[in-house]
Amino acid sequence: MAKIITIGREFGSGGRELGRCLADELGIAYYDNEIITKIAERTELAEGYVAHVMEHSPSATLPITVGRSFYMGADPLLEQNNLIYREQSRLIREMAEQSDCVIVGRSADYILREKEPFRIFVYADMEHKMERCRKRAPEQEHFTDRELKRHIQDVDRRRGRYYQFFTGQTWGDRLNYDLCINTSTGSIPGIVKAVARLVEWE
Amino acid sequence: MAKIITIGREFGSGGRELGRCLADELGIAYYDNEIITKIAERTELAEGYVAHVMEHSPSATLPITVGRSFYMGADPLLEQNNLIYREQSRLIREMAEQSDCVIVGRSADYILREKEPFRIFVYADMEHKMERCRKRAPEQEHFTDRELKRHIQDVDRRRGRYYQFFTGQTWGDRLNYDLCINTSTGSIPGIVKAVARLVEWE
Fold first, then answer.
1. Chain B contact for A126 (CB, 8 A cutoff)
2. pTM to 2 decimals?
3. Cβ contacts (< 8 Å) between B195 and chain A: which residues?
4. B163 touches B114 (CB < 8 A)
5. Cystine design at B171: which of A77, A169, B157, B163 (Cβ 3.0–4.6 Å)?
6. Tens digit of each residue's pLDDT (9 = 90 or more) over A53-72
7. Cβ atoms of A39 and A88 closer than 8 Å
């Protein structure tokens, strides 16, 4: 049976690093930003725009659009959101058909539910997420602690809303995952070795 | 550093089996019902009574007691609850001092927080918990599906209230654990091998 691993993750928790290392450890494909690039190609939309839309659920953009004076019956933003989601779903299914893989984010756990992927959710406490963000931040980024905390919360709120909108499920609710891992105390390489073992045993 | 593993678990999720197997795999002590037996010895209360009190938080018993006509200022049930909790805390700390160990339930994750135990929470979906309960049920137990489901929910609600009362934390909230494992899809032996690896890497 195909080995498909999906990873949901809180912003700053190291979920992406964990996913990449896990794919290396298992010797299987890894998909993350490649998904955005491919969708941009297929829809002929700018990559940055696709990324932006994928982080914002239609429910968040809807009220603004409805309030506009040039509202024409159908909501173009919602249409575009749906277009991107459909393209994303198709792409993720194609990837899962091609070979064993690790897919980070993009509601892949839900999109591939019939393939029964191994669903991981990666999280950490705020202190550790802030520390990780600081280490990875570009030099020109000068958030205060308070701004950084709010930024982390905002990103996760958007991810939660997006996931909820398209899946009808609660993002981060343990029942939607096979394993939830707190990266606050462990090292990613250590965690990856154990998770690889778990996946191989499944 | 001492290897202390605490396991919180939903009723019927296999948390106890997982704990016992994990202790075997790591070759360390395992504590579960032994705690009730010891508390009963020390407090000279009946074992069944101790078990009952430990599954019911004082907040659940309080309104009934307060309503009684022979209420005498201090609440004897609350007193007894506190006595048992104090004894339990002392005992769990003694156990953790003696040797590496796995401790199931009893708010051990919170009681031993200064020792930074590896905190696991075990859960499963309702269908699998019911199936597991059916397999393990005494022959004379004839719950309908609806009764069994309600029973499982009741036990977990009590565990949640008890934990919340004494720790001020939310039972099952992923942030209080290092690892949350869904046993619905995996086999306990497979999970145990991986978790043992994870604990050894920490």
1. no
2. 0.86
3. 194, 198
4. no
5. B163
6. 777 766 554 444 444 444 44
7. yes
Q: Return the residue of B nearest to A200 by Cα.
A: B190
Q: How big is chain B by its Cα radius of gyration, in Å?
A: 18
- Can you tell me whether residue A20 is helix, strand or coil? helix
Residues of A in contact with B178 (CB under 8 A): 181-182, 184-186
Q: Are A105 and A30 in contact (CB under 8 A)?
A: no
Q: What is the DSSP annotation of A81-113? A: HHHHHHHHHHHHHHHHHHS-EEEESTTHHHHTG
Q: Read off the pLDDT of residues B131-189 as tens digits, 9 standing for 90 and up.
A: 999 888 776 578 889 999 999 999 999 999 989 988 899 999 999 999 999 999 878 98
- Does B177 sit within 8 Å of A182, measured CB to CB? yes
| A120: helix, strand or coil | strand
SS3 A11: coil
Whether B28 and B99 have beta carbons less than 8 Å apart is answered as: yes
Identify the helix (H) or strand (E) that includes residue A9.
Answer: strand A4-9
Q: Name the residue facing A191 among B174, B191, B198 (closest C-beta).
A: B198
Indicate if ipTM > 0.90: no
Q: Name the residue with tokens 């506190």.
A: B82
Minimal-distance CA residue of chain B relative to A117? B185
* Per-window interface: B 145-174 vs A, CB < 8 A: 172, 174
- A22 contacts in chain B (CB < 8 Å): none
CA B75/CA B79 separation, integer angstroms = 6
Q: Is A80 on the interface with B (CB under 8 A)?
A: no
pLDDT (tens digit per residue) in A75-84: 777 777 888 8
